Amino acid sequence: MSDEIRLDFQRPERIGFDEAILCARKSDAQLAVIMERVLERDGRSLLTRLEPEVFARIAPNYLEKLDYDPVSRTAYLNWAPPLDTGSAQIAVVSAGSSDMPQAAEAIRTLAYLGAPAKQFIDIGVAGLWRLLERVEELNTFPVIIAVAGMDGALPSVLGGLVPGVIICLPTSTGYGVSNGGETALHAALASCAPGLAVVNIDNGYGAACAAFRALNMIRRARTARD
Amino acid sequence: MSDEIRLDFQRPERIGFDEAILCARKSDAQLAVIMERVLERDGRSLLTRLEPEVFARIAPNYLEKLDYDPVSRTAYLNWAPPLDTGSAQIAVVSAGSSDMPQAAEAIRTLAYLGAPAKQFIDIGVAGLWRLLERVEELNTFPVIIAVAGMDGALPSVLGGLVPGVIICLPTSTGYGVSNGGETALHAALASCAPGLAVVNIDNGYGAACAAFRALNMIRRARTARD
Amino acid sequence: MSDEIRLDFQRPERIGFDEAILCARKSDAQLAVIMERVLERDGRSLLTRLEPEVFARIAPNYLEKLDYDPVSRTAYLNWAPPLDTGSAQIAVVSAGSSDMPQAAEAIRTLAYLGAPAKQFIDIGVAGLWRLLERVEELNTFPVIIAVAGMDGALPSVLGGLVPGVIICLPTSTGYGVSNGGETALHAALASCAPGLAVVNIDNGYGAACAAFRALNMIRRARTARD
Amino acid sequence: MSDEIRLDFQRPERIGFDEAILCARKSDAQLAVIMERVLERDGRSLLTRLEPEVFARIAPNYLEKLDYDPVSRTAYLNWAPPLDTGSAQIAVVSAGSSDMPQAAEAIRTLAYLGAPAKQFIDIGVAGLWRLLERVEELNTFPVIIAVAGMDGALPSVLGGLVPGVIICLPTSTGYGVSNGGETALHAALASCAPGLAVVNIDNGYGAACAAFRALNMIRRARTARD
Amino acid sequence: MSDEIRLDFQRPERIGFDEAILCARKSDAQLAVIMERVLERDGRSLLTRLEPEVFARIAPNYLEKLDYDPVSRTAYLNWAPPLDTGSAQIAVVSAGSSDMPQAAEAIRTLAYLGAPAKQFIDIGVAGLWRLLERVEELNTFPVIIAVAGMDGALPSVLGGLVPGVIICLPTSTGYGVSNGGETALHAALASCAPGLAVVNIDNGYGAACAAFRALNMIRRARTARD
Amino acid sequence: MSDEIRLDFQRPERIGFDEAILCARKSDAQLAVIMERVLERDGRSLLTRLEPEVFARIAPNYLEKLDYDPVSRTAYLNWAPPLDTGSAQIAVVSAGSSDMPQAAEAIRTLAYLGAPAKQFIDIGVAGLWRLLERVEELNTFPVIIAVAGMDGALPSVLGGLVPGVIICLPTSTGYGVSNGGETALHAALASCAPGLAVVNIDNGYGAACAAFRALNMIRRARTARD
Amino acid sequence: MSDEIRLDFQRPERIGFDEAILCARKSDAQLAVIMERVLERDGRSLLTRLEPEVFARIAPNYLEKLDYDPVSRTAYLNWAPPLDTGSAQIAVVSAGSSDMPQAAEAIRTLAYLGAPAKQFIDIGVAGLWRLLERVEELNTFPVIIAVAGMDGALPSVLGGLVPGVIICLPTSTGYGVSNGGETALHAALASCAPGLAVVNIDNGYGAACAAFRALNMIRRARTARD
Amino acid sequence: MSDEIRLDFQRPERIGFDEAILCARKSDAQLAVIMERVLERDGRSLLTRLEPEVFARIAPNYLEKLDYDPVSRTAYLNWAPPLDTGSAQIAVVSAGSSDMPQAAEAIRTLAYLGAPAKQFIDIGVAGLWRLLERVEELNTFPVIIAVAGMDGALPSVLGGLVPGVIICLPTSTGYGVSNGGETALHAALASCAPGLAVVNIDNGYGAACAAFRALNMIRRARTARD
Locate the PurE domain: which residues (chains A, B, C, D, E, F, G, H) (predicted)? Predict the structure, then answer.
């Protein structure tokens, strides 16, 4: 089967970052082939949606090559992100500990891409003071990822308070009419606060990529000054 | 056809308020029969969803008997609510002028029932200061009707700030994924703020009745003190 | 991770009751941190959606501090509700034993909040006599929680018979077009009986909070008399 | 175009009643061809969903042949139902005047088929006494069509009270989560009362045909006794 | 808890058949209480949705009292249906072996109620000849239950061929746009064949009850002849 | 604005047929620019979804260039299909006159493409004999377009009877759970008859293109023989 | 139970290929009966949706008769497809390894039917060059099956590039708004590229049958030339 | 009523741009009050969803103050955007003339905000060459708004080709399963191309605001360099 896989190694040159490997629905054998392809070029890769039990099965063969985090279900293949040498440019804001996995997926992806993020949690609108006392600090971030499940009210409140790019990451937290994240998604899309941009439910990886696209353009503008 | 209609005149004795007449989908002839039934007993009634063009057709026959308001599309039949003699116990809070018809339906219904309400508008979460500077006053109301369309974030914010009964009235304002009010409805039901109670989309009449049930029980408690 | 959690301890002062801990989707480690935070202040808390298997794992460390009920999947942390010293002001009405968990969640929440409830079961509309013979008693309750799954017809019938506040708690009981509680939810929202207020599917905790908001306002009115 | 239409004239021999003509979405020219086909055989037919404005356009050519009723939007072509010579075997029960068009479509269809029906209106569950005082009479009908929109609670209550065949006819009456009749449809299908059978939303014609199938089998049983 | 259960023992007198026990979502303890209630009156009952593993747990205590069938997941409590002494009046028609459980639930329910049914399988429309060669026989049944999943085309074809009462039982067989039975349900409701009556998805019990209501009325007509 | 439009004139070389002009949602000015572009190259084009009132407005400027058909709402621009010189290879089968516009759109598109079709109407499954007596003839067509609304049972029956390519064209005919064609669409997709291929609701143009792709490959095979 | 099964052995004569056995939802006993029926005629059959654990249970009895493939979950009963003796006429194109099971089901079905297919993988539109460099080769196939999940953009791009019959096979790959394949299905149906034909989500078997119908007609045309 | 409106004049200081006026669902009187409020401060404003017929009614009173564009249905109140003095930083890419109104709303909003955009049309994926020949130019834009209806394949293709911020603007163009833009929305959210950010269906104003937030941060980075 190893003939079957043709990875898109030219992607970074085209769009600024490389293809991640979505592990969901791939067999162990398929994952092994893909990782071999990466390693034989001494490349690096980010694995997402890597369930702990799948990791446990494939890990023995890649012990020194995989840096796995069970909360975000991500792994770095043949890669150790550099220590954070500058200040974070991206904030990841969430309401509570239920949305931790999705927020962690975004943060781990950003670290992989070389864009360390600062996390703000317990910023739920039901206890508004926790958000208000952080507004000044949030104003300094050019890009914010707003993670929210259930009613998804956080992005709307945030959108009226800060000027930066806001990437909404709706989560499947909740039950009943939360509809697996649909209500949070729709609330972000239909927000009364202008200029919110939204990614798919539970798509922490995608939120990070969207934030990284913005950061890349900001960096390009900074670089262009010289 | 006049034999066909049997109104539920005993309802006030059972539940504390009388049957309203939902005019939508009723023919002019049907409306005439119903109004005649009320008038021949010298009763009173509230008509809801009475479109201006329908009112224009039936009004000539009931000029002195109907007090019509085109914004809320309601009419009082054979009834003039007493002038407000006490302070309002119910607040009706909304984000903007787009939700005016639904808020007005609730306010007109409450006036008909003898429960004058105070209206707060432009309390949208995208301009949070407009809500925050009113919180102290809102705390004094035992019952609040929160009107919100689009993302429906207002009830969630309000629910974390005030202790009274909160009746959420989602509206069909908006487009796209607002889905005719479904997103605002779901956001209120899935709210992270505890203890919100919700009525059907655009159901200003129902929100008023739910608020009135609460007010009735509060009044009963007050009366019982003597 | 213990830095990450900032609980909203000021909530009771704002809205009259404290934040509950929704255990669903939280890891054991997250739950432990939250409970420690509560205990180190000698606070109390209500845990909801605490599955028996999760309880079994965390219980050994909190044996004397947790009062767990498997039917409602709730636990009281560092709290024993006072024995019921007065008459119940809130009725919890349901059709049958299938809706027991949701009704129990509401009742346990109310007990935690200091508002003992009286339960009425087997009040299904398919055997209407069971409801009719209780109407007189139900009339004495200022607040009723109506629990219903499947077709959700109970709230509509009840709403035409009693004057109190009615909080509808739709449940996910049923199959096929019951759609996980959506039909019961929609039937309550679209009810022909006026003034019903509704909470999310299976949200026994939220129904209790909504009922408690109303009870609080009634109590405030009673207290104000002196 | 007249070649294009081949009517199913053998249907009565197969299933006991003839093909009706659903006028919705047919052009005037198509309707004319179909009616000509019927008349040239001196046949009869039932036209459904014939909007008043369409009737006004085609009526001049068929003045003596069409018996039109604007409430039900039905017409009898070349047919006058016999005067009711026996007692009605089918009851058509509905909650209020908003559901009149659908109830009327069922009643007119039954009259066309030779099965006169008795209509009961204002049997809404929000005023339960109106239903309860009719139960004894309803028990005598072998077949009942229960017409209900909005929350659709009527069939559930009825199903627990009477033994006959119950055909539920959900209607699109209502707004918001009524969803054009979907909630009433789902409530009837998910009913806690056993043995309800349901037809499509607003399908008064289909409800009548289902009732007529049952009546036909009952008549066959009666005839077989002799 | 035994106080909590009040069964509706008067139901047969009102509607002609007794309350079944839907076992889904009931705890073993709840089932035990209900069965005790039935047995202490020497009553009988039908249990539906009794999963094999639940049966295995409760069976030891009721070995001689329960007649269990794993295909239909039904059990007769304290009851053995009489041997079939007459000819079947109800046909149960289905397309294939995938719909067997639902068909079996209907057949077992009918047997319990004293109305033996005849089963026709492999009557799928993709092999039309299997249906056509049975039409003559099917014409002799006053009541037919048509079981169909996936596209649900069987009821439409049947409805154009036979005159009896047709109860459509849509099943959750299929995948993708079958949507857990929704497509079969909607196809039956929107059928071009007139007079089909429909029950909830997978509701074999309900289909049997609807068929039994019709049979009861036919029997009443037969009895009335003497 | 004329600069703005760049038509895809190379499409026939790539895929075998040219771009049609979907007139819905285009302004009169936009349509004029597009037509001019076609005419200045002396090209030809097919216009679809051209409403009669739009045609009436633009027709005066293109009287000799447009061949308009109001039933299918299509127009040929600068093109007259050749008279049918051979036998039709594609059959268009539909149940009744309600689906005529969609069937006509397919037939007109095929004529434009040079693939005359034969139409079969009144092939509804509720009168099965009308289909059965045509099966032998239908067997001779290599490609069949099956047009069906409401329950969409026709394709399933057809799929079990004939061997050719079957393109299902679901239509929005019907009401209630027909859901604007969704039920017919889903029934075709979930059909128990194997090998049906489906296009979007009311997409007569797309059905014709799909049929034409198949016909093109068949013709290529025929041509290749020499 | 063996009497119950009547297979449609005449299907190949009618439509060109035989009935497959959908194993999902069939009990082991039912599968055994069906296989016996096939074997006692020395027939052959294709089993689909045969889960590995079901295969493991039934395999011991049919070791030499079943050729099972776990990726596609298909088995050949009493049949070994001939070695591929000619060039493939059908291409199966997919974006990546996540859609492998559905692509494999199509390919195994085609092999069973005697129509070997060539597979193209990693043809995702996010790395467009992988598709573009294959276009010339894809142009030579008269029939293409386009497998796509998530956003389902592949068929639209392909449809503008190649002239052959395109059968779209949407898959349930993805999460959130992918909605179990619904988005890929709808994108294929609503495609801006004309003449795409679509089958049910994950229906690799159906896609193969639709492709085979087209191939059969092409072969018939080729044969007719001589 | 003029007391009722409190505009959020401080918004630009908080988030970088001012509140627009959504005219849909506002009465003429409400619009007049809002415009007066703006003018009495000599402010400026953007009006969106201003239908031509509403504009025609209110225009006479504000002839010199309103700059109206009927395609985008927007008006500038008391404002004339400066002539474009620099090169455009934002590209607006769309497939065809059907999406013109939404693209125009975005472009007009950007012009109002002082961020001129360059428009690329006819970039549909069904004629891929039109996109490919523009890729190099598109690479120079830091922000791209991708407008797409129907299957919404354009953003996925674009996302694999260019590195900038991509804001997807799904449109309600299309019919059938296009579902008023839902399919285009879902396709953008579920895209296989990473880092796409999405706004509500037809929300050209919101897409512009999201693009402007990114541009603002890029400008801030440029400014910071000096």
Answer: 88-220
